[in-house]
Amino acid sequence: MKTIKKIFDAVENIIKVVCCILVCGFTVMTLISVIARYVLHAPIWWSEQFCRYLFIWMLMLYAPLIVRKGKNLGFDLVVTKLPYMVQEILQLVCEILIGLFGALYCVYTIQLCEKFANKLMEGIRIPAPIMYASQAVCGALICIFSIEVIVNHIIALKNSKKEGGR
User: Fold this and answer.
1) Stretch 52-80: mean pLDDT, rounded?
2) Residue 165 has pLDDT above 60, yes or no
3) What phi, psi does 3 have (nearest 5°)?
4) What is the pTM assigned to this prediction?
């Protein structure tokens, strides 16, 4: 299990570096675009779409890290009033549902990529599957990281039972 954690930690670090590069690219391109438009009076026609695609890729890559760290939003007003084991079971069910969502999101986005395989995005004329692939990568990573979260949750539940629970 420790080897898998190290692999996932390495993947997480790679994703963070890529996201950092995307944010820097987004920021630099936006700055260049603003200077070109308002100082040089020569707008870069493709810059807005390019920045949008960088931003989307960044979001789609970072979303699985939120799942892995358990930082996704939740409404737990009622759940916190329930017994400990019920809370843990509900948390596990949520983690399973998130993993299933990631798998389905990946599958359906791959189908979308196939559907638009020969299409180009208007404006900057890049292949549409490059843009839609960000969603497939996001779904696959959510699914994979969810499996890790679920396994860790089950192990923690077993350990808490051995120690007498809370």
Assistant:
1) 86
2) no
3) -65, -45
4) 0.84
